[in-house]
User: Which sequence fits this backbone?
């Protein structure tokens, strides 16, 4: 017990590098119960997929750590992800982070999907000097805190917003879509509010000058029973494009009501959230068509990306669905942290962090093919493509290099579908 | 147990409880356990505070998270924007919470029973919405507190959780002392009289509004203190976390679980509920199938069914076992 | 005659269309025992409620020791020295008998010790010694009524208004209650009593006021009131009349 | 008709009745008298099944009833007018009466009892649709008795019905009980007003701290010194 | 457009009343706070979803099934849980039903996964009636009409039938009700069952236009609490009327003051009304 006291009194003290390890433990904190559980559980499957690839022998996969069992540079030590549930509660995220570090002795952390949970959890990691690689948490604020032990894979909402405007410009230029006015519909929480702030920021900084104009701003409460009023407001303002920062439950209702009230914008672009969940297409069937959003992947890309396709098969066996963006991003976070440990050849957290910060990680599952973190910890290679639902499938429509189908630039009227 | 009740006074039992709580973290030097202990002490104190207005005075509040959140936000905003010591923020937060309590609860005191309870729920939700929409306090985004070097003045400790624990503990003991003082003074009797029958109370010279208001003020003041402490401990707050209905309900439920209207109740309740929820989550939370909460929910149901008067009922119940049961016919 | 303690001046009280008290007027002098009788539903309890501040009368005024108390809240009226009991007893159920009384005693006690002393004294006086640690909820009706009086007495009232506190007592206990009333009177407490048990109140009352359908129909010495035609017809019934004549 | 044999009963394991036995013949009016807290109410609650006896047996018309639930006992023909009236205040008088007839199956029956009850209590008929809580105490007492009559009981248990009634009404209600018993209903009466109760009762039992200490005809008990001293204050 | 919003609000109000009527029976009439009420609704939705995914059954056809399932749930909730806590002081029933709500919610996650489900085949699906500038969704219309029918049926049942009277009597005074020959245990269980049946129907009806999810009952039950209080506890018609008021407040208030405030406005309306009528709009 005495030793333990010392240890807990000096959390920053690193483990001796010569220590022989059989199992490398990494903590993974996700919302596994509560209203985001549907996503959280998928993220868990994604991380389990990564674990399987790392620990098993997968010569068919052309990527680091796949061919050999375990981490070759650590004597083929196995990787074990230890899952914890933060219940969408920052307090729990914090205490789980502490517990994983203290009791489970994890050498790295990934998670937490909710930016509000990632914030305190990554602070804990910082305090203990344990690397934290966030997958899908998208709040730009995360990488603005100057943390040394924090990195993030997903493009943040800042980058996403610019990406959306560029896409709209592309539609205007190439297809003469004539999109000028935009509306923003977003959930009243950190995710939605932050996204909406980014829209305002980019409009002011750049895109207003290029002819875009915001005509309506609909902020709706976190728990929601119906969206009639919200949709009426949007309908009245008649925006050409609607930016949505919504979860799967709300976006489904919005689409239903767009149909009921015959709202026909030219384009609807979605921040990484509900739209990207394959359940969107399952639930809405044909009504799901023609919506678009940024996504780290799309099933239609699988044909083009062999490795991704094979990874997806493993994932699909577990989860029953195809990879979606957030799941792939959290898969990537698991791969990256394991890769970094392997490259460092040790579980010494400082060395691992150095590896994370300096290496360029191979990521054949991303369209960008690579992951590299900038000074602030943000992945410099945006892995996003613009996807659009067409005939019940997510097609990659932009940038042109990754196109699996041409974008359909304007929404057809509901009755003409 | 009835016997022991006679041998030990309430004061002694409480003192023993407090001593036990104080030494437990020293005996088990595990950081996660310390976290559980901190949460336990904070929630026991919250339950104790809530108990004053609901257990003693009989006015069911489902909106105590409002005061908790006000405490958390006041100290956090002051600290984060103006670098005001959290201790000052704590006091100010408590005073503001008290002010808000007076303003919002005064008109509600004319309401009886469930109508009052729903009113407090409504107030809690409205206050949450105000904070969600209030840009000055960062709205829905929440506030991450700056991390400073360790120190009592800035209420931050990074090496060990024990300082947090003992600060929470001292405040917790203070809350017990206050609650004990109230229960054994004129005010305690008056509050209980109001709970039992407001009219009877009025007839013997009790001004119900005034005493309910006092109770609410004390209760909200203490609740806010722990809100500040909580924010300082987690170092991050957002409105969904500190103003949430589930938080209000947690305070209610743990007190009911332990025994409503008694000083032991919140302590026993928190001692059961907090570790139970933490450890079921730790053991089963990683499965992603909700098994932890299935088990937790089931245990709560069982406790409620078999100890309907709160766990405190256990202590009264032992002595009576073995007698032939009579009493109200069940069927 | 002693000073006027309570003056009820033209009290009228309505519930919707129902007139429960109509222009009721009477006075109570210091040190008196006044009984208020009348049929069920005559408005006696309602009148109590108007006097003690629980209802705001529709019209009329209540003067207590020269002070207009018509619109004062009950707790202030109690502080002035006018305390009442409830016909439908309002026992503080989850508190013991002693705690019930202690609560009343706190009105005039700064310290807990003082309050305890008052409470002990009242417990003696009301013969509740054996039950002082029982919970209010577990008492029989009669004990609850006794407790109701005890709690009121603990506020050290100058005037006490009792609403059917003897209902449910047997003859022996009624005797005790009567003695208590007389004792209180001697101690200088003015009493207003509502009761349906004639045997109990007739002997101890200085004056009787009769209410019927909200109106005062008679007032006077007990022996006069029982002979009143109207009172017999509306309230006492022939049997009582016959019985009382027999004695 | 009713046999109570060595019954003990109480609340939350604390007995208040000890080994109580008595009998009632069909058509009688029997009074149980005794001071406060003697356990009179407890006896009635035990007979009607609200309370479960801790020991002993209760037989009604040759059948054991101490182990069947209250609502079944009503079906067997025992109606209980509880202490303190307990009318359903928020409901109308008619609804209260219909609830009294809850155990009757045929509409025909209900209609005929209702008529009969209205005959005895004409005042209730006039106020059929008034909420019971707006009745004065005496009227509520009548309603409580009428409601009990609605189940066509063979045995009527009446608890402390004189409580809070004005003298005129006490007389009236007692004579109504007498009338009811003349219609063939057996009545078990629990009363504080010893004199009045024993006057109309055929037989009486005196209960003291949970035990039967005397029994006899109403007249005999009234004449007994013991009763006089203890309960009549003479 | 204002008109459209008001109409939408009214339709929504009817949906709420479906949920609130069940609650007013247990909370208002029997004075038991059933915290798991929202979870009963969720179970009703999943019952419909289950029938749909197993047999492709139209949710409207699975109404009787959902009703039955949740009736049974309500019935056994009483028999197994509430019965044990009903005589306990104050808030114990709240504690028990809170545990139950957690249990059900996570059981649903365990059985049906936490995915957001949607039923997209029903004869009413996507149908709408357009009257000038006003659009009425047929699913909501069906829900609204069923809601009126159901509220009236429950009202009639409680006020006019023998069993209904027994429910009232049991609620007012349990022991005296026993003396009337009422099997109060059965009445309690039945009332819980009926309350469950109401939300069961509500669940099947709302399943035609709302996503189904383990958490989907939570918000409804919160609103139902306010509606029941606003209408006056135990008042069935009051629940209907106040549900409509809440529906309109939410829609119109959200439109005028910002949709993020719509529930806050609902709570505010309650606070204002209750100052004027401390026992709810139609309370005793
Ligand atoms: N709060 C009220 N609302 C409506 N009516 C009321 C209210 N209180 C009393 N009443 C009515 O006023 C009348 C007088 O009632 P009150 O209780 O004063 O009678 P009482 O003289 O005390 O009768 P009792 O001797 O039976 O106690 C009755 O008809 C009663 O129904
Ligand atoms: N619900 C209860 N819980 C505990 N004890 C009770 C309860 N009801 C009555 N008692 C106790 O049981 C004893 C007998 O009470 P019971 O009501 O049968 O007396 P009673 O003869 O009817 O008296 P009264 O004339 O006052 O009505 C009393 O000592 C009383 O304190
Ligand atoms: Mg009266
Ligand atoms: Mg009795």
Assistant:
């Amino acid at each position: 017990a005495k030793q333990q006291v010392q240890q807990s009194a000096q959390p920053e003290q690193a483990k001796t590098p010569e220590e022989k390890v059989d199992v490398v433990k990494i903590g993974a904190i996700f919302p596994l119960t509560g209203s985001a559980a549907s996503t959280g559980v998928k993220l868990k499957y994604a991380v389990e997929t990564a674990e399987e690839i790392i620990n098993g022998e997968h010569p068919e996969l052309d990527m680091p750590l796949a061919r050999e069992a375990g981490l070759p540079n650590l004597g083929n030590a196995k990787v074990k992800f230890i899952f914890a549930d933060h219940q969408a509660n920052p307090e729990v995220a914090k205490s789980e982070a502490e517990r994983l570090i203290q009791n489970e002795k994890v050498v790295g952390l990934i998670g937490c999907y909710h930016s509000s949970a990632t914030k305190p959890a990554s602070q804990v990691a910082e305090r203990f000097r344990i690397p934290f690689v966030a997958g899908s948490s998208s709040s730009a604020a995360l990488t603005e805190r100057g943390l040394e032990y924090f990195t993030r894979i997903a493009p943040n909402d800042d980058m996403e917003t610019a990406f959306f405007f560029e896409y709209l410009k592309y539609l205007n230029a190439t297809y003469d879509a004539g999109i000028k006015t935009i509306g923003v519909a977003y959930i009243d929480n950190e995710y939605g509010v932050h996204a909406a702030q980014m829209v305002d920021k980019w409009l002011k900084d750049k895109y207003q000058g290029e002819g875009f104009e915001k005509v309506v701003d609909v902020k709706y409460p976190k728990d929601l029973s119906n969206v009639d009023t919200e949709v009426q407001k949007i309908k009245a303002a008649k925006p050409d494009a609607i930016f949505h920062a919504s979860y799967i439950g709300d976006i489904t209702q919005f689409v239903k009501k767009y149909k009921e009230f015959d709202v026909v914008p030219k384009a609807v672009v979605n921040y990484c959230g509900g739209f990207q969940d394959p359940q969107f297409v399952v639930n809405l069937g044909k009504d799901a068509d023609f919506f678009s959003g940024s996504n780290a992947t799309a099933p239609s890309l699988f044909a083009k990306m062999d490795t991704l396709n094979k990874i997806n098969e493993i994932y699909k066996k577990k989860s029953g669905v195809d990879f979606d963006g957030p799941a792939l991003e959290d898969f990537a976070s698991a791969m990256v942290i394991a890769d970094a440990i392997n490259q460092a050849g040790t579980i010494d957290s400082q060395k691992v962090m150095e590896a994370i910060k300096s290496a360029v990680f191979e990521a054949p599952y991303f369209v960008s093919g690579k992951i590299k973190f900038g000074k602030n910890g943000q992945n410099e290679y945006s892995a996003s493509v613009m996807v659009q639902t067409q005939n019940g499938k997510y097609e990659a429509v932009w940038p042109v290099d990754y196109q699996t189908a041409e974008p359909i630039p304007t929404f057809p009227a509901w009755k003409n579908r | 147990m009835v016997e022991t009740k006679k041998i030990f006074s309430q004061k002694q039992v409480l003192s023993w409880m407090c001593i036990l709580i104080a030494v437990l973290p020293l005996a088990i030097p595990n950081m996660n356990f310390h976290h559980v202990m901190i949460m336990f002490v904070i929630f026991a104190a919250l339950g104790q505070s809530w108990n004053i207005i609901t257990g003693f005075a009989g006015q069911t509040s489902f909106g105590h998270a409002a005061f908790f959140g006000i405490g958390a936000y006041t100290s956090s905003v002051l600290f984060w924007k103006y670098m005001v010591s959290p201790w000052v923020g704590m006091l100010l937060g408590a005073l503001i919470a008290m002010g808000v309590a007076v303003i919002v609860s005064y008109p509600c005191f004319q309401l009886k029973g469930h109508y009052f309870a729903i009113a407090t729920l409504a107030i809690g939700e409205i206050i949450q919405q105000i904070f969600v929409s209030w840009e000055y306090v960062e709205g829905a985004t929440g506030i991450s507190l700056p991390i400073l070097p360790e120190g009592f003045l800035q209420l931050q400790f990074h090496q060990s959780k024990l300082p947090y624990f003992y600060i929470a503990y001292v405040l917790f003991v203070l809350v017990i002392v206050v609650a004990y003082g109230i229960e054994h003074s004129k005010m305690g009797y008056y509050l209980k009289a109001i709970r039992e029958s407001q009219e009877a109370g009025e007839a013997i010279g009790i001004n119900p509004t005034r005493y309910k208001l006092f109770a609410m003020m004390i209760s909200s003041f203490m609740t806010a203190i722990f809100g500040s402490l909580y924010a300082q401990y987690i170092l991050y707050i957002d409105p969904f976390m500190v103003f949430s209905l589930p938080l209000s309900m947690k305070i209610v439920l743990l007190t009911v679980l332990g025994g409503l209207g008694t000083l032991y109740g919140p302590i026993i309740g928190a001692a059961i509920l907090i570790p139970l929820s933490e450890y079921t989550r730790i053991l089963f939370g990683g499965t992603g199938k909700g098994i932890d909460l299935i088990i937790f929910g089931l245990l709560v149901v069982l406790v409620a069914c078999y100890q309907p008067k709160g766990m405190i009922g256990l202590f009264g119940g032992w002595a009576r076992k073995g007698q032939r049961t009579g009493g109200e016919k069940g069927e | 005659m002693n000073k006027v303690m309570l003056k009820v001046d033209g009290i009228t009280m309505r519930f919707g269309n129902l007139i429960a008290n109509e222009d009721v007027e009477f006075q109570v002098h210091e040190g008196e025992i006044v009984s208020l009788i009348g049929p069920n539903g005559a408005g006696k309890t309602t009148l109590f409620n108007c006097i003690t501040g629980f209802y705001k009368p529709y019209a009329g005024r209540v003067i207590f020791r020269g002070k207009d108390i018509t619109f004062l809240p009950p707790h202030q009226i109690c502080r002035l020295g006018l305390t009442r009991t409830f016909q439908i007893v309002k026992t503080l159920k989850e508190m013991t008998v002693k705690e019930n009384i202690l609560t009343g005693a706190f009105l005039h006690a700064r310290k807990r010790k003082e309050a305890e002393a008052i409470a002990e004294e009242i417990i003696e006086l009301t013969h509740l010694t054996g039950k002082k640690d029982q919970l209010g909820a577990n008492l029989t009706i009669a004990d609850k009524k006794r407790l109701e009086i005890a709690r009121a007495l603990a506020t050290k009232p100058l005037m006490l208004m009792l609403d059917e506190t003897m209902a449910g007592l047997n003859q022996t206990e009624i005797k005790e209650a009567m003695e208590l009333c007389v004792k209180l009177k001697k101690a200088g407490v003015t009493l207003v009593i509502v009761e349906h048990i004639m045997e109990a109140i007739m002997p101890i009352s200085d004056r009787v006021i009769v209410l019927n359908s909200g109106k005062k129909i008679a007032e006077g010495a007990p022996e006069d009131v029982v002979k009143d035609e109207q009172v017999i017809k509306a309230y006492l019934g022939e049997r009582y009349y016959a019985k009382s004549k027999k004695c | 008709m009713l046999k109570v044999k060595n019954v003990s009963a109480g609340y939350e394991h604390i007995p208040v009745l000890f080994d109580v036995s008595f009998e009632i013949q069909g058509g009688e009016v029997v009074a149980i008298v005794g001071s406060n807290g003697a356990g009179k109410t407890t006896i009635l609650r035990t007979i009607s099944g609200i309370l479960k006896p801790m020991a002993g047996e209760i037989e009604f018309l040759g059948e054991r009833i101490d182990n069947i639930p209250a609502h079944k006992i009503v079906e067997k023909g025992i109606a209980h007018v509880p202490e303190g009236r307990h009318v359903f205040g928020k409901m109308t008088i008619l609804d209260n009466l219909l609830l009294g007839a809850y155990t009757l199956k045929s509409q025909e029956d209900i209609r005929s009892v209702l008529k009969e009850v209205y005959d005895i209590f004409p005042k209730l008929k006039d106020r059929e649709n008034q909420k019971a809580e707006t009745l004065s105490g005496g009227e509520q007492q009548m309603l409580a008795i009428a409601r009990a009559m609605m189940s066509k009981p063979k045995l009527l248990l009446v608890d402390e019905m004189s409580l809070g009634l004005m003298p005129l009404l006490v007389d009236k209600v007692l004579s109504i009980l007498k009338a009811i018993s003349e219609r063939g209903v057996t009545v078990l009466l629990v009363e504080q007003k010893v004199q009045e109760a024993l006057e109309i009762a055929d037989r009486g039992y005196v209960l003291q701290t949970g035990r039967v200490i005397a029994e006899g005809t109403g007249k005999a008990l009234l004449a007994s010194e013991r009763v006089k001293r203890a309960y009549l204050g003479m | 457009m204002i008109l459209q919003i008001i109409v939408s609000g009214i339709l929504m109000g009817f949906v709420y009343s479906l949920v609130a009527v069940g609650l007013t029976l247990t909370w208002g009439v029997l004075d038991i706070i059933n915290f798991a009420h929202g979870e009963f609704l969720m179970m009703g939705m999943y019952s419909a979803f289950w029938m749909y995914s197993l047999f492709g059954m139209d949710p409207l056809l699975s109404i009787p099934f959902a009703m039955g399932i949740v009736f049974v749930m309500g019935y056994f909730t009483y028999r197994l849980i509430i019965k044990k806590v009903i005589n306990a002081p104050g808030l114990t029933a709240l504690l028990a039903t809170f545990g139950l709500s957690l249990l059900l919610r996570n059981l649903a996650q365990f059985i049906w996964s936490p995915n957001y489900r949607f039923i997209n085949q029903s004869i009413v699906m996507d149908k709408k009636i357009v009257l000038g500038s006003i659009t009425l969704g047929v699913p909501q219309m069906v829900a609204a009409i069923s809601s009126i029918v159901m509220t009236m049926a429950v009202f009639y049942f409680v006020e006019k039938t023998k069993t209904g009277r027994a429910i009232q009597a049991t609620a007012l005074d349990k022991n005296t009700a026993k003396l009337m020959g009422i099997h109060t245990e059965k009445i309690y269980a039945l009332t819980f069952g009926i309350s469950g049946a109401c939300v069961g129907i509500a669940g099947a009806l709302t399943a035609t236009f709302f996503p189904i999810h383990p958490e989907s009952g939570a918000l409804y039950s919160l609103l139902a609490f306010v509606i029941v209080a606003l209408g006056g506890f135990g008042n069935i018609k009051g629940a209907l009327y106040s549900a409509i008021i809440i529906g309109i407040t939410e829609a119109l208030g959200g439109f005028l003051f910002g949709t993020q405030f719509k529930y806050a406005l609902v709570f505010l309306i309650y606070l204002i009304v209750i100052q004027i009528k401390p026992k709810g709009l139609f309370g005793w």
